[in-house]
Write a structure and sequence with these properties.
D-Maltodextrin-Binding Protein, domain 2, 215 residues, 11 strands, single chain, 33% helix, alpha/beta, 30% strand, five-stranded mixed sheet
Amino acid sequence: MDDYLNIALPKGRLGEDVYSLFASCGYECDGVMDDSRRLVFENPERQVRYFWVKPWDVGVYVERGAADIGVAGKDTIIETAPDVFEIGDLRLGRCRMACAAPDGFTDDGGTVLRVATKYPNIARSYYSSMGREIDIVKLSGSIEIAPLLGLTDVIVDIVETGRTLRENGLSVTDVISDISARLIVNRASYRFRGEQIRELAGKLSSRISEEAERR
């Protein structure tokens, strides 16, 4: 094992915002934001190594120790339940996990509720807490169209501005959870590299607070 702190970043806009936050705290690394297919980047001076992975895979890399720390949306953390420590809210990628239904829809509870979602575990847990029997239809995209075509009655999905829902005649019926990017840590790494990790987490927290005060 080398002395580098391995950091898993989620590909996409959220990952770019996350990296900018890390860089602003002194953990910059040449090439991370270049337009290339390269996936691993190192800064020998800061002893950090970044690598890009799909958002849903961040928890796997951290749990299994390929990454010491990573950044994942609270939605993927709840859905996949990786065995990691969650040590910080980066306040990026803010949105909501919500239930939505066609305007005017009423759930009378008389039949099994059909639910379209990318998040079956979250949906199942939520409706189970209500004692509601559901039939989950797992989809990977265009969730909003499912009720419009009669495939399901409602959806459970991430809602940011609500514009897509409104333009498709849907509205939020309940908010399950607030979602944002979270800093997660491998359990063994936190034990053996705790000082290094806490130093990074502290700098991130301070920067986040400073930016919040400016707003």
